[in-house]
Amino acid sequence: MRRWCLALTGVVALLTAACGGGGSGSSSGSPPHGNVLQVGAPREPTSLDPAASIAYTNDQYFALYDTLINTNPKTHQLEPGLATSWSFQGADRLTFRLNLRPGVKFQDGTVLDANAVKTSLDHYRQLHIFTDLDAVGSVQAVSSSVVDIHLASPYSPLPYVLSYRAGMIVSPTAMQKYGKDFGTHPVGAGPFMFKSWQSGSELDLVKFPGYWKRGQPKLNGITFKYITNPSSLASAIQGKQVDVAGPVIYETTNLPALRANSDLNVILATDFGGIAQIQMNATKEPFNNPLVRRAVNLSLNRGDIRKAAV
Fold it and tell me: Distance of CA 183 to CAs 45, 50, 139, 188, Å?
């Protein structure tokens, strides 16, 4: 049976099997609820501005926004996104140049140019919810299609950083129009655009007909239904109330029973390179002391970690 699937980052993603015949044809099945995907989401963002929320709701952000640089989910290699090429300039590598894709527009019709990218990156830095652009000294729109990011110090991870939240470019027109309310009126250049958001209930997105990738998206929309209880989330996918549920922490669900259900695809994070991590807050005690961070680092048994990982 052909199965319809959507890649979601998480520990366990659960997908219902599509109704379709067998065979090796190139066409794929449709979600059971038609051409609007119903997603059971365990987390709700505090804002739909990707620079303003620390909530781990990346599936929702990536539906609304495209990034300057993409990461291939299979190879983990960097690929063109809103930028077609990029490179560090000069021997000191303190300037990072991006050449933007021509002809891209935001969901409100605003042209995505160098000034829009500069405005978005400056907004991200000014909010300073995240620190991954702290090495940036300034952003310059060199021309309508070229952006230079000037670094205060060398920062090799920058291309990867721009494939994540920092690289999600928001519409400057919408930011100016809505101001502090942009987080409830999001406008990006991603495959889906905002329709409505009922806090505590669901987020409705509809297909963006002007998306720069021809023929995409295949869906007419996505509805994220917020189901925060892991057991309720697993029950929702088993009861076919949603097409996709994830991430689900498998310790709190009956994973063997879920994997035995022929109507479901269960995808573990290890199947597609998902990463779970614990980070130290270097701005608060005791982790603001580098000696403490080094002590934690030295206490790790890397041999045991490698054995468990492989």
Answer: 10, 8, 23, 11
